[in-house]
Design a protein that fits this description.
The protein is α+β, with helices and mostly antiparallel strands. It has helices spanning about 1-25, 30-35, 200-225, 225-245, 250-260; strands spanning about 45-55, 60-65, 65-70, 85-90, 95-105, 125-135, 140, 145-150, 155, 165, 175-180, 270, 280-285, 290-295, 305-310, 315, 320, 330. The strands form 6 sheets. Strands 1, 4, 6, 7 and 8 form a 5-stranded antiparallel β-sheet that branches.
Length: about 325
């Protein structure tokens, strides 16, 4: 009997050890992120889509295919900004065809009073959607082409010659458009995702509580600088990103530098902030969920509730989806 018991113990130890070895084997390292370019498929022509933004006196969001590509909740600017930085939007384009783009405008915060403006007043947003292609054979880019202009409606004062928003009394304004994209890849991740969209208060509460469990795990990974777990958390997202942006070796190496600062997930001198004042938001027509900071009047509102504070405040990417037939939330 003693021999049989000893034999069973040996089997259990062996199986456990084997399982732990498999887990270790499947764990990714930061070097894997640096080598992710090796898994990227390249094509003769690689189309890159992006946007340029002009804005003034408004908080606003831009979504492509209902996926956020810009979230700006800042203090009032009192003037139209010059043509902004280029923002790539390939990450919101999963396949060729007609794409949607939507701009949601809200009142800004007044820098002097630090209060929300009562209406949109003279808010303005202009967006140019642009395209350029990289020829991998000739190793050169085409000229940048503007394929769509979108702008909030304005009228010109004949005396002052200044333009003004035609709906100054509104507290929200949404305008949209479509454009056709031709990309050589197809991303099917969200085709296999559950549609979680709901307006039921109890369902939203339950979904928020379930999602919060994933955020607590992320908090621990970031707070305790668990790099191996961090890499495993983000690897599939990074792999998809690399494909949609056609990463080269240089791009992958540069990406590692952005993910870690001196070997730290959270920059030295910064501290993770507790989860408070947050709400559930849906994107991708209900297939993506996230928790966002929701304190009225504060910069960073509607950005990820996963944040750190130091010399400034930093928000961390946290869009999730849940595969069909699964209860697990996966970083998108």
């Amino acid at each position: 009997m003693k021999t049989i018991t000893s034999f069973l113990i040996i089997i259990i130890i062996s199986v456990t050890s084997c399982g732990q070895n498999n887990i270790k084997t499947n764990m990714k390292s930061i070097e894997d992120i640096g080598n992710i370019y090796k898994e990227v498929e390249h094509f003769p022509l690689e189309a890159n889509y992006g946007i340029y933004i002009n804005s003034s006196n408004t908080n606003f969001e831009i979504r492509v295919n209902d996926i956020p590509v810009f979230i700006g909740y800042e203090f009032i600017t009192n003037g139209v900004s010059p043509k902004g930085s280029y923002l790539p939007i390939n990450l919101a384009i999963s396949k060729s065809g007609i794409q949607t783009i939507e701009i949601k405008m809200y009142p800004s915060y007044n820098r002097e009073t630090q209060q929300l403006e009562p209406s949109l007043k003279n808010a303005q947003v202009k967006v140019d959607v642009v395209k350029r292609e990289y020829n991998t054979i000739k190793k050169e880019y085409s000229e940048e082409e503007v394929i769509l202009n979108l702008a909030s409606p304005t009228e010109k004062n004949e005396t002052s010659k200044k333009t003004r928003f035609i709906y100054p009394e509104r507290i929200e304004y949404v305008f949209d458009g479509t454009f056709e994209a031709s990309v050589p890849y197809t991303i099917k991740t969200l085709e296999k995702a559950q549609n979680l969209l709901t307006t039921d208060v109890e369902e939203i509460k339950e979904l928020t509580e379930q999602l919060l469990l994933s955020y607590n795990k992320m908090f621990e990974i970031y707070d305790q600088n668990k790099i191996s777990e961090y890499v495993n958390l983000i690897y599939n997202k990074e792999k998809r990103t690399a494909q949609q942006l056609f990463f080269t070796e240089a791009d992958s190496k540069k990406r590692v530098g952005k993910l870690l600062t001196s070997g730290k997930i959270v920059k030295e001198g910064y501290k993770m902030m507790p989860f408070e004042d947050f709400k559930l938001r849906f994107y991708a027509n209900g297939k993506i969920v996230t928790l966002v900071y929701d304190k009225l009047g504060q910069v960073g509102r509607n950005k990820s509730v996963l944040r750190s504070t130091g010399e400034s405040r930093k928000s961390y990417y946290s869009l999730f989806y849940r595969p069909v037939g699964s209860d697990e939330f996966i970083l998108y």
